[in-house]
Amino acid sequence: MKTMMKRQRFSVQKGIGLVEILVALLILAIGVLGYAGLQLAALKGAEEANNRSQATLIGQDALERIESNRAEVATYLDPDSWPNATVNPGGDPETGCQANDCTSEQMATLDIDQLAWLAGNQLPNGRVRVSQCNGNTMSCVVVSWGKMAPADCLTADGINVDESATCVVLEVSR
């Protein structure tokens, strides 16, 4: 009987215990959660980069439209010419008159409507505005999205460079 007790006491464990498995699963779960967090951060960064790219393209489009209709620069720079609210996404852009049939004033109005439609459809809560930069002789094309209004993108000191700013400002000197 003594020999049998000794054998039971000194027997070698075969396999893995439940505690070891649970610890390994816990470590694996923490790693998977960390990876999921990185994926979410990467997706958010990609979305922000896409929004900035779209906003830059809309701003560039605005500049090209202004350059092609220099007779109406004052209309483009008038803050009252631009919509104050976000254009509801969907639908078709304003077509109005055709380029050959438009006066320069009608073309400026059509450009503003189309740019506002582009901002509202390409960006979440997107808005666009062209105005004089604060205290400068330069013009600013401001495209904002999210919770920011175009007016929030320009400060008394110049351009809002806060990390949370969701806008693109293109300064133009003529």
UniProtKB/TrEMBL annotation:
Pfam families found in the cross-reference section: N_methyl, Tt1218-like
Type IV pilin Tt1218-like domain span: 38-112
Name listed for the protein in its UniProt record: Type IV pilus modification protein PilV
Coiled-coil annotated residue ranges, if any: none
Lineage: superkingdom: Bacteria
Gene: pilV
